[in-house]
């Protein structure tokens, strides 16, 4: 019986993997084509070249855009996890504010970003935050914090109360018990939540576009979109830029895949 299931399961998984990777592989082949062949999808016979990658890094401030995305992603992830850990613990242990308060935190994940970003723009404009990295970070926190809270509540609910109570009897404060006793016990969930928040921040397009569109604060998704110029679509550069954006996420997922799988499994996200 198990053998029959495997005969069906593995081909389906292989097909799903091929379908998932096909767009990225197509972008990679496009990025290493000579410029004149990049506009010909059926051109499969060519001498690979890294010219598009050289142009991406030498003919634009791509390293600045990379730094902006990395800085915004790291700060968004750290703040989201700090707030998420404390809020998830409070909801799990004390049901703070009841279900209405929990739903209020999670509502930012339900509404379309445009519902949030329009009033946010006017508020940031009044405080002089438009065209700053801080504006992008604050925008990303609107989905980073709710995601971290939603992801971690279940982990704290599974931990016995005796863990922090024993630590507090030994002289630890509640915060010390949370961060030095409970968080290490659910490190898979914390790491998985951090990965998801970072990936969403790294790939986000709408908040950097509306809140900080100038070159000094431009992030990678905006930089790649700007390869569609008045001269036409610079498809080879765009393909190379997409690979540069995607590659760090592949490497990140590869090195932390065990934590990610364990965290997703324990959170119940995978069903």
Protein traits:
271 residues, two-stranded antiparallel sheet, mainly alpha, MetI-like fold, 13 helices
What's this, in brief?
The protein has 271 residues and is mainly alpha-helical.
What does this structure look like?
The protein is mainly alpha-helical and about 270 residues long. The chain has helices at about 1-30, 50-60, 60-95, 100-105, 115-125, 135-160, 160-170, 175-185, 185-205, 205-210, 220-225, 235-255, 255-265; strands at about 230, 230-235. Strands 1-2 form a two-stranded antiparallel ribbon. The longest helix is centred in the first third of the chain and has 33 residues, at about 60-95. The chain is globular and about 70 Å long.
Q: Topology, please?
A:
Layout: H1 2-31, H2 51-58, H3 62-94, H4 98-106, H5 113-126, H6 133-158, H7 162-169, H8 174-185, H9 187-203, H10 206-211, H11 220-225, E1 228-229, E2 232-233, H12 235-255, H13 257-267
Antiparallel strand pairs: 1-2
Helix pairs in contact: 1-12, 2-12, 3-6, 3-9, 6-9, 7-8, 9-12, 9-13
Q: Could you give the distance between the termini?
A: 22 Å
Give the helix proportion (percent range). Answer: over 70%
Number of helices: 13
Please report which band the strand proportion falls in: under 5%, 5-15%, 15-25%, 25-35%, 35-45% or over 45%: under 5%
Overall form: globular
Write the H/E string, N to C.
HHHHHHHHHHHEEHH
Q: Profile the largest sheet.
A: 2 strands, antiparallel
CATH superfamily (homologous) name: MetI-like
């Amino acid at each position: 019986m198990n053998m029959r299931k495997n005969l069906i399961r593995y081909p389906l998984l292989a097909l799903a993997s091929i379908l998932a990777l096909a767009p990225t592989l197509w972008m990679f082949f496009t990025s290493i084509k000579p410029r004149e062949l990049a506009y010909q999808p059926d051109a499969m016979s060519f001498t690979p070249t890294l010219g598009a990658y050289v142009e991406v890094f030498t003919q634009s401030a791509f390293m600045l855009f990379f730094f902006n995305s990395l800085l915004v992603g790291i700060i968004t992830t750290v703040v989201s996890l700090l707030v998420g850990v404390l809020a998830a613990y409070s909801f799990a242990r004390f049901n703070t504010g009841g279900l209405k308060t929990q739903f209020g935190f999670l509502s930012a994940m339900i509404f379309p970003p445009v519902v949030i970003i329009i009033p946010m723009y006017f508020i940031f404009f009044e405080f002089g935050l438009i065209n700053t990295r801080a504006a992008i970070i604050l925008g990303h926190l609107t989905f980073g914090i709710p995601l971290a809270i939603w992801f971690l509540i279940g982990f704290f609910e599974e931990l016995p109360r005796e863990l922090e109570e024993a630590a507090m009897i030994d002289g630890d404060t509640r915060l010390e018990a949370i961060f030095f006793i409970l968080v290490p016990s659910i490190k898979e969930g914390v790491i998985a939540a951090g990965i998801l928040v970072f990936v969403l921040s790294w790939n986000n397009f709408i908040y950097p576009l509306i809140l900080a569109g100038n070159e000094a604060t431009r992030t990678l998704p905006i930089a790649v979109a700007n390869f569609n110029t008045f001269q036409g679509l610079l498809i080879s550069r765009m393909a190379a830029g997409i690979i540069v954006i995607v590659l760090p996420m592949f490497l990140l997922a590869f090195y932390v895949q065990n934590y990610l799988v364990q965290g997703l499994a324990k959170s119940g996200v995978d069903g």
